Amino acid sequence: RQLYTVRDGGTIALDWLLAFDLEDADEIISKDSSTPLLVVVPGLTSDSDAAYAKHLVHSMARKGWNVVVSNHRGLGGVSITSDCLYNGGWTEDVREVINYLHRKYPKAPMFCVGTSIGANIL
């Protein structure tokens, strides 16, 4: 789990499953990695603990992808740390997370999938 702080002080939990986590390796993602990266944006009240999210994450990691679930503010066991609350019309958090990941891993092809309201946010 990585706690990411957005510009207004809000906190978003980024829950990672890396392809090599399934191989019991002790590694981190290199900034030069070209392994595909999948960003998952859950539904309205879901987070990385939802059964469908776990299934998607594990399926893609088994195929050799690095996967991160971008949990919404206040979900995934993370407290609210700013005056801004999550809502289905707010796209700035996902934009900020995607831009951050793109800057951090510029050589990794990035794909995003949203479920339910997460698809609308994307």
Automatic annotation (TrEMBL):
GO molecular function annotation: monoacylglycerol lipase activity; short-chain carboxylesterase activity
InterPro entries membership: AB_hydrolase_4_sf, AB_hydrolase_fold, Hydrolase_4
Pfam families named in the record: Hydrolase_4
SUPFAM superfamilies the record matches: alpha/beta-Hydrolases
Domain of life (superkingdom): Eukaryota
Ranges where the Serine aminopeptidase S33 domain occurs: 37-121
Family to which the UniProt record says this protein belongs: Belongs to the AB hydrolase superfamily. AB hydrolase 4 family.
Protein name: Serine aminopeptidase S33 domain-containing protein
Natural source organism: Aegilops tauschii subsp. strangulata
